[in-house]
Amino acid sequence: MKPLGVQADPMFGVRRRAALRAAAAAQLGEPEQGPDGGGFLGLDETELTAPVRAALTTLVSEIDELRQEVGRLKTHLNEAEGLADRDALTPLLNRRAFVRELKRVAAFAQRYGSPASLVYFDLDGFKAVNDRFGHAAGDLALQAVAERLAANVRESDVVGRLGGDEFAVILAQADLAAAAAKAASLAAAISSEPVQCGEWLAPIKVSYGVGQIDPDADAEQVLAQADAAMYARKRAG
Question: Choosing from 165, 175, 218, 227, which is the catalytic residue?
């Protein structure tokens, strides 16, 4: 809405456009002086009438409010994206987000020739934990596995829950030999102590398989290879 008394001013359109430019310049930190060094973006003090100044003040206020609203929307969007990437039970990435990170690491390996590996974990006898101690105990066991994995990797590594009792870790800058050694260490950390479930102690045992993330590898193919290696190890006892 235009301020009262401005409609009759034939120069109002020109002045309003100048005021809009002035507001934009003020927000962008541009100089406010015109070419002759005086006035406000080509307008001298006599042209900056009270209605124009009022319109400019209102416009700047509205711009500030819009900026704040955009900031709030960006915050909500980031929070929503973060929730969409998280597993429902544990603080780890879900399968969708983990596969996305796996593709990113493969692209990085292709570009820079840096090694990277994947470790695939599967809990042994997890159904027996649920049957004997209940599903609440099973959830506690899954959460304990997630916490122990997250606590024993580097910041550059990526941990995810792929579903059920299956977990995976992307080890950056790790060839197969280094990944195998780290996988054994992580498996020991997972099985280091049972999970307290009321008066019961539920043991956690795990099998794992290791696969290298080749530069041209498909993400699902890398997961399948590490999964196959894990089952071969499980069958071997």
Answer: 165
